[in-house]
Amino acid sequence: MRLLALTLVLAVAACGGDGGARATDGGSGDDAARARDGGAGDGAAIDAAIVPVDAPAPVATVTVTPMLAPMIVTTEATLAAELRDAGGNLLRGRAIAWTSSDPARLSVSAAGVVHAFAVGGPIEVSATSEGAHGSVMISVVDGVITGITDIRSFLARCPTNDPAYAALRADFELRADGVPIAGDPPCTEPYSTVPIAQLTDELYVLQVLRIAYYMSPGTESHLPWTSLGLYPWLHTRVSGINLKAAPGQLYCCDQLDGRLFFAMSRQSDFSRDFKRDWPGLSGSLAFFAHEIRHADPGPGHVNGCPAFPQPSDPLGCDPSYDLANLGSYGVQYWLESSWANGSLYIGIPCAPPAVAQTYLANAVQEANSFINRFVTNAPPTATARRTYGGPCP
Ligand SMILES: [Zn+2]
Q1: Where does the pLDDT of residue 68 fall: very low under 50, low under 70, confident under 90, or very high at 90 and above?
Q2: Which residue, of 11, 59, 60, 66, has the fewest CB within 10 Å?
């Protein structure tokens, strides 16, 4: 509608002395165009006086949009085809035929809806109209669509306001040096800007657990170290988290009342301030997974990797990056690299571009910081990739 109205403005201006058209609308051509743009509907005389621009011109070019990022298998997206005549005018109402070069992997409907069935590609999806055609290349990649479709907006909510809050408290008991922590930590939304006094260890730990809860759907049978989903795996391995007043504590686990509690020191204001946004929270989730992997128990730590090569060095290495038996650093690398390449899809591409870039760069940096933690068979360098996991909410 807006494009058509713009065309009419130009046409009226070009006609200049078309007094008939002006008289009909009681003013200048601009007024007439404004009336039509606003949907006033008094445009019959204008339409009669000006030849419609999209009447008989043949289709000259077809442009398919959007250029899609690699699509995660099982997802759907809608493409559009923009048709123009030789003069560059937009054409509407013409028949369009859609085809896929590999419909077994990526089908396309008559309406331009593509469905990713199987990993492969790049696959060409073409739109043809009156002999002209345009196309896009789309790859289908492996991945898990989790329950988080837009991580950035997801993080605005306080964990205490979430419908899952009661489940989080029931599944993970919070303790302070062994003493149960009662009550709900105060939190004023948005979570990302709570005063530092509200951003307690209790609050950010609950936010990390909330992320795990919603990231879990779809992960069943897709995590290399367990057949469980992420959240059930975490909460069946430990009974809770024991916050320690003593500094420098991060281990699995304390035995309290005969049950296992993952132990960690209370954090400084400076460290907690970093837990407002995805980079800090995701690092904590990866660390939680590291420690809780010890409760499986996963392979123990050794030395002899590039980061700790000497027999006298701390035991800061995994024996191998073995997907059939991942150690704790392997779990961290796997999570961070999967966030970076979008195969654990949480809607990072739905954030504003600069934010998405920051999140991806952080995940790449974190993942690659673990590569020197393996004695043999270190994993490859992680890279960022913006995948398509469905429309942003
Ligand atoms: Zn460890």
Answers
A1: confident
A2: 66
Structurally, how many domains does the chain consist of? 3
The SS3 of residue 348 is: helix
Q: Are residues 186 and 279 in the same domain?
A: yes
Pairwise CA distance, residues 194 & 192, whole Å:
6
Using the predicted structure, report yes or no on whether residue 17 has a pLDDT greater than 80: no
Say what the pLDDT of residue 37 is. Answer: 35
State the residue range of the domain holding 39.
Answer: 2-49
Looking at the structure, tell me whether residues 30 and 122 fall in a common domain. Answer: no
Q: Are residues 90 and 214 in the same domain?
A: no
Task: Assess whether 123 and 219 both reside in one domain.
Answer: no
CA of 327 to the centre of ligand 1 (A): 8
Last residue of a domain, one of 122, 141, 160: 141
- 388 has which bridge partners? 71
Q: What is the pLDDT of residue 10?
A: 34
Specify whether the CB–CB gap between 72 and 113 falls below 8 A.
no
Distance from the CA of 115 to the center of ligand 1, in angstroms? 41
Q: Are residues 261 and 303 in the same domain?
A: yes
CB–CB of 284/272 below 8 Å?
no
Whole-number pLDDT of residue 56: 75
Cβ 288 vs Cβ 268: under 8 Å: no
172 half-sphere exposure, CB direction, 13 A CA radius: 27
Spacing, Cα 218 to ligand 1 middle (Å): 26
331 CA distance to ligand 1 centroid (A)?
10
Looking at the structure, tell me whether residues 170 and 33 fall in a common domain.
Answer: no
What spacing in Å lies between the alpha carbon of 294 and ligand 1's midpoint? 7
CA 381 / ligand 1 centre spacing (Å):
21
Q: How far is the CA of 16 from the centre of ligand 1 (A)?
A: 79
- Tens of pLDDT, residue by residue over 48-67, are 445 455 557 999 999 999 88
pLDDT tens digits for range 373-393: 999 999 999 999 999 999 999
Of 91, 116, 141, which residue constitutes the final position of a domain?
141
State the distance from the centre of ligand 1 to the C-alpha of 298, rounded, in angstroms: 10
| Cα–Cα nearest to 18, from 55, 46, 41 | 46
